[in-house]
Specification:
This protein is an all-alpha fold and 152 residues long. The protein contains 6 helices and 2 strands. It is 66% helix and 3% strand. The longest helix is centred in the C-terminal third of the chain and has 24 residues.
């Protein structure tokens, strides 16, 4: 196990500088996408427009945006000189089920955390505020039930 991870519990390290820089980069990416393409940085919408049955005609910037997200940990590892440590404590089946539930949620919520939470709140959208309150409330309830009711 890596540093900060003990048997039976996953611990996270307090990283205010890295978190501040990462949040700043997310905000910068959202602003640049709006400035250069007039688009909201809603990752679910960006991804879904690349998939069949009707891929968007503006596939290049969408693929570049997602490629940048997927490639960022490798760039960070190159700069930091060490690989990014990732520890997943949940079984694969639970991760897949969780992903499916989130997919249903972003469909019914007409957007995801990046579209509503980053871009929508920054634009003062009441609809995004309602969506963020709903998904953050659901996340808090899920963590409470998983840790204190089920005992995971």
């Amino acid at each position: 196990m890596s540093a900060g991870v003990t048997e039976g519990a996953v611990m996270t390290t307090f990283t205010p500088i890295a978190s501040l820089l990462g949040g700043g980069l997310i905000g910068l990416a959202a602003v640049m996408l709006m400035a250069f393409h007039g688009r909201i940085a809603g990752v679910t919408g960006i991804l879904s427009a690349l998939l069949p049955p009707a891929p968007a005609p503006d596939r290049a910037w969408r693929a570049a945006f997602l490629g940048g997200m997927a490639g960022a940990p490798f760039v960070y590892a190159g700069i930091a000189g060490a690989p990014v440590a990732i520890a997943v404590a949940a079984p694969t089946a639970l991760l897949l089920a969780s992903g499916m539930i989130v997919g249903v949620g972003v469909t019914y919520g007409s957007g995801c955390t990046s579209g509503h939470g980053v871009c929508g709140l920054a634009r003062g959208s009441g609809r995004s505020l309602a969506a963020v309150l709903a998904f953050m409330g659901a996340a808090a309830l899920t963590v409470f039930v998983a840790r204190h009711v089920v005992g995971g």
